[in-house]
Amino acid sequence: MSLTVIIAAVLLLALLAASARWTWWRSPKPGLKVLCYHKVGVPPRGSKLGELWVSPGKFRAQVKYLLDNGYTTLLFSDLKKLADSGAALPGKAVLITFDDGYENNYLYAWPVLKELGAKANIFVVFNTIGKVNLWHGTASEPWINMATLEQLREMQDSGVIEYGSHTMNHPRLSRLEAGDAAWEIAESRRQLGAALGRELCAFAYPYGDGAGAPALREKVSEAGYAFDFSFRQGITPWPWDRKSSALDRLYIRGGDNNWDLALQLSRGASRL
């Protein structure tokens, strides 16, 4: 065997090994696709949480990819109408969600959504509206401004954004006493709904903590939420069997490109 053939074989094996990190070889998965973002913008200097930040340009490219490829972006209320009627999802349905309610969602994500004609949803931590992300340790990143109530209302009035609850204070629910956890879940729906003049139908567990705990999921149901969302990576079968699990999401990282996005949407993950 010639040296050229050996080198070619080694390169081919290296290429195959590298590409196996991506999930292109997996079978496509049907079901509800829910994208999960956090912050849109540039991470502050010294941030150790860069993967939570997606640049405005990259976010715009990802939303444009969705629309160019025939995806229909849904609000929580759209999903509830489908669930209540027993209707099938549109051929390419996707929910864009943001966790926490940062001011940068208003400054950078909302203008992109308005420009391109897409819809999105934000899970809000009620007690930090107009403040900073107080649950966050500053050793990993400086505190970030949260959207004000006026900004939340402006986005809602545009018809582009709807809201869900992310508790009152962003705790790890499983670490709280049962009554305190129930209060975080129910009171956030009551207060945020009153502040926005809308009834909320969606809840997301901070850190994903509690999404696999039947007792906490029962409290979410008792509080009146139609949907509860995990932070587990994946695509949820539709129609959704609420008793089986919370709705999974597709976590979009700052380093993800449109290839990663396409694999997330089709395979439920982009990389191993």
What does this structure look like?
- With 272 residues, this protein is α/β, with parallel strands linked by helices.
- It has one domain: TIM Barrel (Alpha-Beta Barrel).
- Strands 1, 4, 5, 6, 7, 8, 9 and 10 form an eight-stranded parallel sheet that branches.
- Strand 4, helix 3 and strand 5 form a beta-alpha-beta unit.
- The longest helix has 19 residues.
- The radius of gyration is 20 Å and the shape is globular.
- It starts with a helix and ends in a 5-residue tail after the last helix.
- About 2% of the residues have low confidence.
Which terms summarize this structure?
272 residues, alpha/beta, TIM Barrel, eight-stranded parallel sheet, two-stranded parallel ribbon, 8 helices, 10 strands, 37% helix, globular
Question: What's the layout of helices and strands?
Answer:
Layout: H1 3-19, E1 33-37, E2 39-40, E3 53-54, H2 56-68, E4 72-73, H3 76-85, E5 93-100, H4 103-116, E6 120-124, H5 149-157, E7 161-165, H6 178-196, E8 202-204, H7 214-222, E9 227-233, E10 247-251, H8 258-267
Parallel strand pairs: 1-5, 1-10, 2-3, 4-5, 5-6, 6-7, 8-9, 9-10
Helix pairs in contact: 2-4, 6-7
The amount of beta strand, in percent, is 15-25%
Biggest sheet, in brief? 8 strands, parallel
Number of strands: 10
Amount of helix = 25-40%
Q: Outline, from the CA principal axes? A: globular
* Uncertain residue ranges: 12-17
- The string of secondary-structure elements, in order, is HEEEHEHEHEHEHEHEEH
Q: Judging by the overall fold, what is the CATH architecture?
A: Alpha-Beta Barrel
- CATH topology name: TIM Barrel
